[in-house]
TrEMBL record:
InterPro entries xref list: Ribonucl_H (IPR013520), RNaseH-like_sf (IPR012337), RNaseH_sf (IPR036397)
Signal peptide: none
CDD domains to which the protein is assigned, alphabetical: DEDDh
Protein known as: Exonuclease domain-containing protein
Location of the Exonuclease domain: 9-183
Organism in which the protein naturally occurs: Brassica rapa subsp. trilocularis
Length: 255
C-alpha cells in the first residue's frame, strides 16, 4: 500500500464489533464508518461505511434488540475485512484520527485487523479522542461521558450503534460542547453554572435502559433556547458589537 500524507486532515471514524461472551473470544469488526472533515469548518469532505463479514459468522448475533442493529444475516454477504482493507487504509493513513474512546478501543481493533491479514496498519498523524478531551475540558456534566449519555445531555436523540450515525453524532456532540465552553470562557462569571439544573434523562446501554440524574445546561437540550438565555443575560449590552458577534458565532458552530 502506498503511503500518502494528509497530516492536516481529520478523519472521524467508528467501529461496530461483536461483544465477546466466551473466554478467549476476540473482538471482530462488523462495521466501519468514517467521515473526513475540513479542520477549519468541520464540514464533511468525504464519507464511507461498510458492513464487514467476520471469518467466523457465529460471532455475529442472530438477532438485535435494535430495529436497525447488525445481525448475522446482514453481515453474511458483506465483504471481508481484507476486501475493504485498502479503502480503510487510504482513509486513515497519515490523517488525524478522531473519535470517542478510540485510543483504547477503535485504534487497537484496527491494528489487530490489519495484523490478522498480514498487512501494515495505517498510522495517524495525530489522535483526538473526544472521551478524554471532553472529560478534561467539559467535566463530568454528562455523567459517565459515554456517547449515549452526551447525546442525551444535549437532546440529540438515541445512539444507534451504527458506525456512520455514531460518527455524525460524535461531531454534533463536539460542536455543542465547544459552543458551551466558548460562551462560558467569554463570560465566566455570568454563565458558568447558570444553565445547570437537575433533570432526569434516559440513557441506553447495550443490555438495558437506565434513568440517571444529569446536570443539564439548558432545559430541553435546545441550543436555540440556550442562545436566547445568553441574549437575556446580555440585554444591557445590546449596543456591544463584540457580544452580538459572540451570539451569532454560537449558531454558526452548529451549521
Amino acid at each position: 500500500m502506498e503511503f500518502h500524507t494528509f497530516s492536516n486532515e481529520i478523519v472521524f471514524f467508528d467501529l461496530e464489533t461483536n461483544v465477546p461472551n466466551k473466554t478467549g473470544q476476540h473482538f471482530h469488526i462488523l462495521e466501519f464508518g468514517a467521515i473526513i472533515v475540513c479542520p477549519r469548518t468541520l464540514e464533511e469532505v468525504e464519507s464511507f461505511t461498510t458492513l464487514i463479514q467476520p471469518k467466523d459468522l457465529s460471532v455475529a448475533s442472530l438477532r438485535s434488540s435494535r430495529s436497525d442493529g447488525i445481525t448475522r444475516d446482514k453481515v453474511a454477504d458483506a465483504p471481508s475485512f481484507e476486501d475493504v482493507a485498502e479503502k480503510i487504509y487510504g482513509l486513515l493513513n497519515g490523517r488525524i484520527w478522531a473519535g470517542h474512546n478510540i485510543r483504547r478501543f477503535d485504534c487497537v481493533r484496527i491494528k489487530e485487523a490489519f495484523a490478522e491479514i498480514g498487512k501494515a496498519a495505517p498510522e495517524p498523524s495525530g489522535i483526538i479522542d473526544s472521551l478524554g478531551l471532553l472529560s478534561d475540558k467539559f467535566g463530568k456534566r454528562a455523567g459517565n461521558m459515554k456517547m449515549a449519555s452526551l447525546a442525551a445531555y444535549f437532546g440529540l436523540g438515541v445512539q444507534k450503534h451504527r458506525s456512520l450515525d455514531d460518527v455524525r453524532m460524535n461531531l454534533e456532540v463536539l460542536k455543542h460542547c465547544a459552543t458551551v465552553l466558548f460562551l462560558e470562557s467569554t463570560l465566566p462569571n455570568q454563565l458558568e453554572g447558570k444553565w445547570q439544573s437537575s433533570s432526569k434523562i434516559m440513557t441506553r446501554s447495550r443490555s438495558s435502559y437506565q434513568t440517571a440524574q444529569r446536570a443539564m445546561p439548558y432545559s430541553k437540550g435546545s441550543l436555540v433556547k440556550m442562545t436566547q438565555n445568553v441574549k437575556n443575560l446580555l440585554s444591557k449590552a445590546q449596543g456591544n458589537q463584540a457580544l452580538q458577534s459572540l451570539i451569532k458565532h454560537s449558531h454558526s458552530l452548529l451549521r
